[in-house]
Please model this.
Amino acid sequence: MASTTSMNSYWMPFTANRDYKAAPRMVASASGMFYKDENGREILDGTAGLWCVPLGHAQPKVVAAVQHAVATLDYAPAFQMSHPAAFELADKLMTFTGNKFGQVFYTNSGSESVDTAMKMVLAYHRARGEAQRTRFISRERGYHGVGFGGLSVGGIGANRKHFGPLLTGVDYLPHTLSLEHNAFSKGEPNWGAHLADDLERLVTLHDASNIAAVIVEPLAGSAGVILPPKGYLKRLRELCDKHGILLIFDEVITGFGRMTTPFGMDYFDVVPDLMTTAKGLTNGVVPMGAVFSKGFIYDTLMNGPAGIEFFHGYTYSGHPLAVAAALASLEVFMEGEVLANAKAMAPYWEEAVHSLKGLPHVIDIRNVGLIAGIELQPIAGKPGARAMAAYKQAFAEGILVRTTGDIIAMSPPLILEKKHIDQLVGTLAGILKTLD
Ligand SMILES: Cc1ncc(COP(=O)(O)O)c(C=O)c1O
Model:
């Protein structure tokens, strides 16, 4: 296909368009742990697409559910109207989250989930008479999507710098990555819980009565697999409670099994007031996101004047195809085998990725659940070039990884077996040995 199209018309997202179009990488089909390119060559998926295919590609139950849905109810209006499966899914999601939340609001992406959660928080504070609570606190190196809300609380400079002015009234906690203290930690690092205490400084500066919410990823994925130090998230929770500040976990990456538990909040044993999700919710098959909120937030808004309580929503909120994909995905998750496999593979995964320690350029390795980050020493004056070269070579050698700066990130589908881990890590080891 590439040879018969101009390649020029499609403006690709988060892509070096000129570089890519000079030497495109295409996939044509996918099944289980593998993509295939246009020539039928297999590429082992070390990233579950973009962290969004936890159950593996073409999961039969999900495929069948979507096929059935599209032939039955192609679309249902989302405002003042709905369809039964949307309510069924909401109930089942409550169960899957251990009934820690009261409601779920449907969106179409992680970015929309984040903006929705931010608006819920503002509406909630206003409805209970604290309309001045408008400030958000997030974190350096955080990624919360590309909407203006999520971008404003995002902490990755390259994403922000072209698009000002962003929302005012946002402050940033320090990120939690420290190679000096924590390099080559296995799982949650020991050093750094005190970094959460920076919230006290911001409370002193602004007064808690002006702060609406803290938003963080339990584990920062997009900025290169940055783990929370032991005790850090619990400390954030305590400080939020102390000051009446709501806590939002952005679980777009950590949700739906990535940590070997249903959500990051389960793994870290810290429950937020709102949780934003997307990606694994539908196994990546149909775009969908979901915001989970504690019952008290919804209840507060339901006490307002009669009529629409929350002036927000999307044409495709609760789209029948997305709901069908989510219901089928949830059924597979609830059967338990996929999460059990992820748990069983996690120790092998940890040992395998840490076996790369000592190879040329490797300055840190980080892991948790079925996630790994391998940080390389940048080439002087060419940040990101070394990891990008590794990424291209990996694709040429039949494995798909991801890079952020000079960090190689891996997050394979949770159905993987030891042989897949061996192939991913073995191929990467060979590449690291030959990389400039
Ligand atoms: C934590 C987090 N939040 C939000 C998003 C944005 O999701 P989307 O690309 O679906 O808008 C992402 C995407 O990777 C993410 O990792």
